[in-house]
Write a structure and sequence with these properties.
With 201 residues, the chain is α/β, with parallel strands linked by helices. The chain has a single domain, classed as 3-Layer(aba) Sandwich (Rossmann fold). It has 6 helices and 10 strands, in the order αββαβαββββαβαββα. The strands form 3 sheets. It has a 6-stranded mixed β-sheet, with helices on both faces. It is globular, with a radius of gyration of 16 Å. This is Xanthine phosphoribosyltransferase. It catalyses: XMP + diphosphate = xanthine + 5-phospho-alpha-D-ribose 1-diphosphate.
């Protein structure tokens, strides 16, 4: 998604070879117009599938799951990271190791909102080590629902997330795929549409 790549180039802060900060437009202050465009892009990619629910993890996946939910006309569920008293029984849970915070936590969702009748699209802001999304995929499996695919806004392709998911047979689509980065420079893997565009197709 070209507009997204441009914003990453212009505003992204590369804190190290593995951490990209996009707090000015994606995951602290949110450019709502861009978030809605991201939702539309997920519709373009996944709209032909019979998705009934979108699943994400709080907090930074929520705005994109909501935008995708609006575009696809389905509800979204966000997994909670802290065990709330209101979520005391009947939950699906999975352990996750956080790449950015270097800590372990458990994600949970209520069994009331996901079941064998559901067809799920997982949406998140970043695909890095894949730990968060593998945790969500485990929850979908436990619920008996069918996982149709994973859409993420930014993929750091040099980390192992995509291969972990693809090994499980889960289709993955990322709107911006970073092949490498270093302070002051970021390189993207062109997606199929961009390759066709530059070939004049
Ligand atoms: P993963 O489980 O794939 O390693 O990443 C889990 C979460 O960590 C992502 O959903 C995202 O919120 C956060 N994350 C991973 N890498 C980055 C990064 O480079 N920058 C930011 N801002 N968040 C990241």
């Amino acid at each position: 998604m070209r507009v997204l790549e441009e914003r990453i180039r212009e505003e992204g802060l590369i804190l190290s070879e593995t951490v990209l900060k996009v707090d000015s437009f994606l995951n602290h202050q949110v450019d709502t117009e861009l978030a809605l465009q991201i939702g539309q892009e997920f519709k373009t990619v996944f709209g032909h599938l019979p998705v009934t629910k979108i699943l994400t993890v709080e907090a930074s996946g929520i705005q994109f799951a909501m935008a995708a939910g609006i575009a696809l006309g389905v509800p979204f569920i966000y997994a909670k990271k802290k065990k709330a008293v209101t979520l005391s029984e009947g939950v699906y849970s999975a352990p996750v190791h956080s790449f950015t915070r270097q800590e372990d936590y458990v994600i949970s969702i209520s069994q009331k909102y996901l079941g064998p009748e559901d067809k799920v699209l997982i949406v998140d802001d970043f695909l890095a080590t894949g730990a968060a999304l593998v945790g969500l995929a485990d929850i979908v499996e436990e619920s008996g629902a069918q996982l149709l695919g994973v859409g993420c806004v930014i993929e750091k392709s040099f980390q192992e997330g995509r291969s972990l998911l693809e090994k499980r047979g889960i289709p993955v689509h990322a709107l911006a795929r970073i092949s490498s980065m270093a302070p002051g420079e970021v390189h993207f893997i062109a997606n199929e549409e961009q390759i066709k565009e530059s070939a004049g197709c």
